[in-house]
Amino acid sequence: MPSQTITPDKDTVPVFDARDLLGPNLRAFLRLDDQTYTLRMTRNGKLILTK
């Protein structure tokens, strides 16, 4: 699948590059209130969000 470039304007939702969030370990922890979620990238380049 070809990559798409998204250019958000001031009225859209922010766009983040997943690789920037995940870093070299391809994993990041996200906090929402008192819950922690794990966002990770699979070997196939898919994202998985778990509680």
Protein architecture, described:
This is Hemin uptake protein hemP. Pfam families: hemP. Keywords: Plasmid. This protein is mainly beta and 51 residues long. It has a domain of 33 residues: Complement Module, domain 1. The chain has 1 helix and 3 strands; from the N terminus they run αβββ. The protein has a 3-stranded antiparallel sheet with strand order 1-2-3. Strand 2 and strand 3 form a beta hairpin. The N and C termini lie far apart (28 Å).
Features:
mainly beta, Complement Module, domain 1, three-stranded antiparallel beta sheet, 3 strands, flat, Hemin_uptake_protein_HemP, Hemin uptake protein hemP, plasmid
Overview in brief:
The chain has 51 residues and is mainly beta.
The CATH class of the domain at 18-50, by name, is Mainly Beta
Poorly predicted runs are: none
- What value does the Rg take, in angstroms? 13 Å
Oligomer state of the chains in this structure? single chain
What's the mean pLDDT score? 90
Number of strands: 3
CATH homologous superfamily label of the domain at 18-50: Complement Module, domain 1
Number of helical segments? 1
SSE order, one letter for each helix or strand: HEEE
Task: Give me the secondary-structure topology.
Elements: H1 18-22, E1 27-32, E2 35-41, E3 47-50
Antiparallel strand pairs: 1-2, 2-3
Protein name: Hemin uptake protein hemP
Keywords: Plasmid
Pfam families: hemP (PF10636)
